[in-house]
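Explain the record.
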Amino acid sequence: PRIKKPKRKQFLHILRLRKKLFFILKFYCHLAGMIKATGLSKSYGKLQVLKDVSLLIKEGEVVSIVGASGAGKSTLLHLLGTLDKADSGSIEIAGQQIETMSRNQLNVFRNSKIGFVFQFHHLLPEFTAFENVCMPAWIGHRSKTETENRATELLKLLGVENRSHHKPNELSGGEQQRVAVARALINKPLVVYADEPSGNLDS
């Protein structure tokens, strides 16, 4: 079948949305320290995904990790985001050594200091867009008024404020992803990890 190419006007609009998204991520991601990983290795069974990976990301840097499918990009993000544990190596975020934290300390650190935007939005289907954005702040016992004001601000900034009371299945793919971006920024994290965040943006 013949693939229909997007019109130039539509293409430029999508391009502007992507540029706006990365500007927002850069504006709200104020790194108070740095990310330092040393000698990270990770295997799943006999398959070694990462081997002796080290990196240093300075304060205020916006860094892209590129590579072929299956190269281990998402695995590395999961390790740096404390969602998974490396087989060996160490990770330091904002001067704090991740390996020394207890599970509860790690949960609190992740909620308050790290924001995630995944390839798939992972919005909770039973809650509205507004409630999904507020959820990390509610979990962190932040002020209700402050949380709701910030959620409204972020949804407006991302152009989905008029969809705030709709549930995920009532949103387009691009709207779902923009809500997910707002959720990642609600707690003013030190670090934002984004795994192909603009892949689902629509016009």
